[in-house]
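Fold it.
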Amino acid sequence: APLPPREAARVLRGLATDVVRPVSHWLYENDDTAPAGDAEALPVRWRDWVGSVLGGMQPAPPLLLAVLFAALVTPFGLSQYGPLQCLPAVVGGLVVVGAGNLVVSRVAERTARPYRGIVLVAGYLVVGVALSLTTDAAIRVQGLHPHFIWFEAGTYPLIALGVALVVSLSARIRLDQQGLEAAVQASVFDAARLRADYDHQRAAFARVLHSGVQSELIAAALALGAGGGDDASGELRSVVDR
């Protein structure tokens, strides 16, 4: 059926005011975004985490370890030999343990990570044996018979490795925290950048609808309304197709 120009103009004005204009305003004013999907969490296997800790073993603080071990064994020496007789063994033990720990730390720091644990075990065993020999000599030189001296050769490596494990765990946790903070900061930056791009595209599309499409529809409606003829369906179809 023929479409009068006035009716065609009314259709174009309706498209401009009832469709294009509300959509452009909605794009400008609406701030809703689609809900973000849940990020897939990559599970960390306990075996891998423990392996990373053991593979990155760090030596215990040398002087702190020497003082800690002396504080643990000195009460036993005082109860067995007395303060004066125990003093040479304590001083000699501190010197041997402190120097031995420094050597073990230097060697371990220059050793590849996969072999660092082996170096620490062997090094602390050697320091434990040297400590027992020093304590035994310090007691015997005073004419006394040492009791339970060689237990130091076994207990010292255990305590030293325990302290080294605590130090390694603390270092691993700090690294994990730093990695997590870096990942969170990167995610926040990416999200902000994506949101800015999204808002920019929405605003650009809204401007196109408001200043381009709506204006063109109104101009075409005015032209059709002012024109003559009995059928404006062809002109209407041409405008809508553009």
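The chain has seven helices and no strands.
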